[in-house]
Specification:
Radius of gyration: 19 Å
Oligomer: single chain
Structural class: alpha/beta
CATH topology of the largest domain: Lysozyme-like
Largest sheet: 6 strands, mixed
Number of helices: 10
Bound molecules: zinc ion
Helix content: 25-40%
Number of domains: 2
Length: about 250
């Protein structure tokens, strides 16, 4: 699969880090690939991405991977706030309210091709293949609840928590992590675990609207559980399994 180099964005600067650790997936919310190219390559918009993938599966290289493209904006993941400096941004030619409102087979295949290449090249963990809504849950909803994360999970290009049995969940790790920290409500436990997983929980601590946005961002990524959205206890169980997965992997290392 060839990259298209006919369009370049002037919107970039130098990275403040040499490590590329995260890939951020976006959708453009623009009605066509030509509009997206125009928008992302126009100096006055001050936004860009490294790659843009069309509905037909063409991959446009707009900014060199060596440079810091401007796609993440104000964002947070696992303590880092300058996500643009440590990430590669991929925009998908998709808009929920226009005719390009499908994640087509060709688009998905091109994305899989690109992610496979990038994960290998930079040794990026599949835990760090994220949506814009994961790193900016209070401002952004892209790539949206219809984005096919499960296709990426099937190819190990995105993290899928493994289901654990009850005895594993009730083991000492849980006691150590959740009970010792005196988290005396489900909400506090959820916020603690989501922050441990990577999310910025600062605003959600203070305000219910932001708490709901955060839960929405989580639910739309780990969509196999989307029916659990309105049941706090069920979403708690899902997040707990995810959290325990992360602790168990960390303990192995
Ligand atoms: Zn975005």
């Amino acid at each position: 699969m060839k990259l298209i180099h006919n369009f370049k964005s002037p919107n970039f600067n130098d990275r403040k880090s040499n490590n590329i650790e995260i890939i951020v997936i976006h959708y453009t919310a623009l009605s066509s690939i030509s509009n997206a190219l125009k928008y992302l390559c126009s100096k006055k918009n001050k936004v860009s991405c490294h790659y843009l993938i069309s509905q037909e599966g063409e991959i446009y290289s707009l900014v060199s991977e060596k440079k810091r493209a401007w796609h993440a904006g104000q964002s947070y993941w696992r303590g880092s706030t300058d996500i643009n400096s440590i990430s590669i941004g991929i925009e998908l030619d998709f808009s929920p309210s226009d005719i390009n409102n499908k994640f087509t087979l060709k688009l998905n295949s091109a994305l899989i091709f690109l992610l496979t290449k990038l994960l290998k090249k930079y040794r990026i963990s599949n835990e760090n293949i994220l949506g814009h809504s994961d790193i900016a849950p209070y401002r952004k909803i892209d790539p949206g609840k219809y984005f096919p994360w499960q296709i990426l999970e099937n190819k190990n290009l995105s993290y899928r928590p493994k289901l654990l049995n009850k005895s594993e969940i009730k083991n000492s790790i849980k006691k150590e992590w959740l009970n010792k920290k005196k988290l005396n409500s489900i909400k506090k436990k959820i916020l603690f675990m989501l922050n441990f997983i990577g999310y910025d929980t600062s605003l959600a601590q203070k305000n219910k609207i932001y708490f709901d946005k955060l839960i929405n961002a989580y639910s739309s990524h780990y969509k196999i559980y989307k029916n659990y959205y309105y049941n706090k206890k069920k979403i708690f169980d899902v997040i707990e399994v995810h959290f325990l997965n992360i602790i168990l992997t960390k303990n192995k290392k």
